[in-house]
C-alpha cells in the first residue's frame, strides 16, 4: 500500500486552470438590436440629407462621374464664345441692384472697372479728337498705343460711346484695319444709329450698302435704324421706298419703328402714307399701342374716312386702351360734319366719362 502512495502513481494535483474554472461565471450581457435596418444610403445617424454610395469602390462607374470635368469644359467653352462673340455667345443675365449698388456700379464704370481701364482710356482719346479740326490728325497714330490691346467687343464699346459722327467715321475706318475685326451687323448698326441721329443720311446709305457688300445680312434692327433716320429728317419718299425693299426681304420692323414712322407722316400731314403704313402694320400682325391708335384715328378723320375711324376706335377700346378726350372730340366733330347720326356712341361715352 505504501508503494501505491508513490507520487508517480498518485493522481496529479488540480491545475490552476481547473481551479479558476471552478469559480462562478459572471452573467453575460446581451445587446438587443432592432431587426429593421436602414437602407444602405442612409447614414448611421439617421440624417437622410447626406447620402453615401452603396459600395465604396463600385465596379461600374456611374454615368455622372465626369460631371465636374464636363461643367468645367463647358465653362471654358462659353468663356471663349463670349470673348470671340461667336454666333452662340452667351450673355450674362440681368442683375437686380439696389439704388446704392447702382450708384457704385456707375462709379466703377467711370473708374474703368466694368470695361477695363484701357477701354475707358481709348474712349477718352477718341472723344478728345472732337476739339481738333477734321483732317488734322491721323487715327492710326492716335490709336497706335492700343493696337492688339482691344478685342472686337471692346472696339465696339469704344465706337458706341462716341458722340461725334467724325470720330465714329474715323474710328470705324481704323477698326477695319485691325486683325481681330470681322464684319458684323452689330457694328454697322451702331454706325447707322449715330449717322441717323445727326442727319448724315448719305453716309448712312453708304454704310448700309457697305454692310450688304460685306455679306452681312440686314436684320430688323438695322433696317429699323435706317427707317427712323429717314423719318427723323423728313425723308419720307426714300423712307417709303426703303420700307418696300424691307418688305420684299420679309423683314418686319418692331412696333416702336412703326409708331415713329406713322407719327412722322402724320405730323407732316401725309395722312394717306400714314394709313398705308398702318394697314401694312395690321397685315403683318404687329400689335399697335395706344399712341398708334390715337394717331391713325386722327389720320382717318383728316381724310374723311368715317367708317374706318370708328372701326379703329372700337378696336382700340376692345384692346383695352382708354381713348383720350381729343379722340372723342375728333370723332364727334367728324360725325357732325358728315351727318352721321348713327355714330352717337362717342358722345354718350364722353358724358358718362365726365359724370
Describe the model.
The chain has 355 residues and is an all-alpha fold. Among the domains are: 105-180, no CATH class; 183-251, no CATH class; 254-343, Tetratricopeptide repeat domain (Serine Threonine Protein Phosphatase 5, Tetratricopeptide repeat). 57% of the residues lie in helices and 0% in strands. The chain has helices spanning 16-21, 67-84, 99-111, 117-127, 139-142, 152-160, 165-175, 185-198, 201-213, 220-232, 236-248, 255-267, 271-283, 290-302, 306-318, 325-338, 345-354. Helix 10 (220-232) packs antiparallel against helix 11 (236-248), helix 10 packs parallel to helix 12 and helix 14 (290-302) runs parallel beside helix 16. Residues 35-42 have low confidence and may be disordered.
